[in-house]
Amino acid sequence: MNETIRGLLTKFGGLPVAVEQIADDADLYSAGLSSFASVQLMLGLEDAFDLEFPDTLLNRKSFSSINAIAATLAQILDQRDVA
Hints:
The protein is mainly α. It is built from 3 helices and no strands.
């Protein structure tokens, strides 16, 4: 999952540093992720994982790091599997 997230960050993140240089727990906003890029990233994640982010998870914390994105995706997928 983290490799897919990293690929989408490379495509949509517009970060001034190589995604490979960013630790999984590093703050993506400090690394240069903009609000616009986070929306583009969210749309890419929705396509890649065939899911939709609920309004309750559309916040800065959900996209703050690669680990946070992975945890958010896992939460959405878990809820979908239960439904």
